[in-house]
């Protein structure tokens, strides 16, 4: 039994018996798994409540990213992941500075050869804004998935763990590439462009007025639609070239409306105002003169609608936008219109160009 071949066979037999070959197989498998980076920013998905019954009373932005990843070990089955704690805040407190910093980090990571996909864990309150902003400013076709949760991990039937697993599975899915920034919530895959938080206390909170793109079930993505508006690699905006956003504010349309809020925002330096109008973005006759005067002073006026849920603001329908030189937000809600207007103003103050941008993104 001293022959070299017999010694090799003995070694192989021992290796099989001790499981080393599966380890080599496992190494080969790991090498095939996508490399996904998880950027944590806070929110309920990192929240903690006092008891399991606290599904709505809790503190957001408590659990650090390493604990978040450790709480869902199954994500290691769908990708090789590593985490970064970018912020630890409730997302209602996001500022333009947070948005720019996060987008620049996403952009930098997307350029790394050892990064195949990026997941951002985020509070749900402004999740749609971040997803929309990344969709228009990060020039990559690699999957970027924004995810949150409606219940903290400490609650009965918490949704964060599966939402996170689904987000990683989607970021690791080759089919997710080139579809722009995605949002995975409640087993659904939404485009960051359309999705909005429509319910404030249920796991099925996120809706897209034109429908979700697909679903992710047991780690597999299933697609039924693809975005048609410009995004990521087809965008004229590049976060690497943007270091500040002009101030744009939003004022709500309602009965008994007054122009005071619009005038105050403009006096405080707003370069544009988003009117979150009733119905088709309509403007009260008591507000129109003030908006026309602000427009004459160079403030860009954008009509959006407070209605949400589908449809879009029609130009020159109930308001003579051409005469007033106003812009319509088309189907974008006020909070997304604020971001697109700010981005447009980094490049132009020409309202015809700004209107084009609203129709293309
Ligand atoms: N305050 C909410 C936020 O951080 C909690 C959440 O729903 O994530 O957006």
Task: Describe the protein in words.
With 361 residues, the protein is α/β, with parallel strands linked by helices. The chain folds into two domains: 4-10 and 31-234, Rossmann fold; 247-360, Rossmann fold (3-Layer(aba) Sandwich). The chain is built from eleven helices and 14 strands. It has helices spanning 4-18, 20-32, 65-70, 96-110, 127-137, 160-171, 260-267, 288-296, 321-324, 334-345, 351-360, and strands spanning 34-42, 79-89, 117-121, 144-147, 181-185, 188-191, 196-197, 206-207, 214-217, 220-223, 248-252, 272-277, 300-305, 327-328. The strands form three sheets. The chain has an eight-stranded mixed β-sheet, with helices on both faces. Strands 11-12-13-14 form a four-stranded parallel β-sheet. It has a two-stranded antiparallel ribbon with strand order 7-8. α5 (127-137) packs parallel to α10 and α10 crosses α11 (351-360). The chain is elongated and about 100 Å long. The termini are far apart. 45% of the residues are buried. The model has no long low-confidence stretch (mean pLDDT 93). Bound molecules: D-aspartic acid. D-aspartic acid binds at residues 43-44, 60, 90-92, 123-125, 148.
**What are the low-pLDDT stretches, counting only 5+ consecutive residues below 50?**
none
Annotated CATH homologous superfamily of the largest domain:
L-asparaginase, N-terminal domain
Please give the largest β-sheet.
Answer: 8 strands, mixed
- Average per-residue pLDDT, rounded, comes to 93
Distance between the termini: 74 Å
- Percent range for helical residues? 25-40%
Total count of helical runs of at least 4 residues: 11
Please give the oligomerization state of what you see: single chain
Which CATH class of the largest domain is shown? Alpha Beta
> Can you count the beta strands?
14
Instruction: Give the name of the CATH architecture of the largest domain.
Output: 3-Layer(aba) Sandwich
Shape: elongated
Q: List the ions, cofactors and other small molecules found in this model.
A: D-aspartic acid
CATH fold name of the largest domain: Rossmann fold
Instruction: Please compute the radius of gyration using only Cα atoms.
Output: 24 Å
H-E string: HHEHEHEHEHEEEEEEEHEHEHEHH
Domain Asparaginase/glutaminase C-terminal: 247-358
Organism: Aquabacterium lacunae
Binding site for substrate: 91, 124-125
Signal peptide: 1-28
């Amino acid at each position: 039994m001293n022959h070299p071949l017999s010694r090799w066979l003995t070694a192989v037999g021992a290796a099989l018996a001790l499981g080393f070959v599966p380890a080599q197989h496992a190494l080969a498998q790991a090498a095939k798994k996508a490399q996904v980076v998880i950027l944590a920013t806070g929110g309920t998905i990192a929240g903690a409540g006092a008891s399991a019954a606290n599904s709505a009373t809790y503190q957001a932005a408590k659990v650090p990213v390493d604990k978040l990843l450790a709480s869902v070990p199954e994500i290691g089955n769908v990708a090789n992941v590593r985490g970064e704690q970018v912020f630890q805040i409730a997302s209602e407190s996001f500022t333009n500075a947070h948005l720019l910093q996060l987008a620049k980090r996403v952009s930098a990571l997307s350029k790394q050869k050892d990064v195949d996909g990026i997941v951002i864990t985020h509070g749900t309150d402004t999740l749609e804004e971040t997803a929309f902003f990344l969709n228009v400013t990060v020039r990559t076709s690699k999957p970027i998935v924004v995810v949150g949760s409606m219940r903290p991990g400490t609650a009965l039937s918490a949704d964060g763990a599966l939402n996170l697993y689904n987000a990683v599975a989607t970021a690791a899915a080759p089919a997710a590439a080139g579809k722009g920034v995605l949002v995975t919530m409640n087993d659904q895959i939404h485009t960051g462009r359309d999705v909005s938080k429509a319910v404030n206390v249920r796991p099925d909170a996120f809706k897209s007025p034109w429908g979700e793109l697909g679903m992710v079930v047991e780690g597999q993505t299933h697609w039924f639609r693809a975005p048609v508006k410009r995004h990521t690699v087809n965008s004229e905006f590049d976060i690497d070239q943007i270091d500040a956003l002009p101030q744009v504010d939003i004022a709500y349309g309602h009965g008994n409306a007054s122009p005071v809020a619009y005038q105050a925002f403009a006096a405080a330096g707003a370069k544009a105002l988003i009117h979150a109008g009733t119905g088709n973005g309509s403007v009260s006759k008591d507000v129109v003169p003030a908006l026309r005067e602000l427009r004459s002073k160079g403030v860009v006026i954008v009509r959006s609608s407070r209605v949400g849920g589908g449809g879009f603001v029609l130009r020159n329908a109930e308001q003579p936008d051409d005469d007033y030189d106003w812009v319509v937000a088309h189907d974008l809600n006020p909070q997304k219109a604020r971001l697109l207007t700010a981005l447009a103003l980094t490049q132009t103050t020409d309202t015809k160009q700004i209107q084009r941008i609203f129709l293309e993104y």
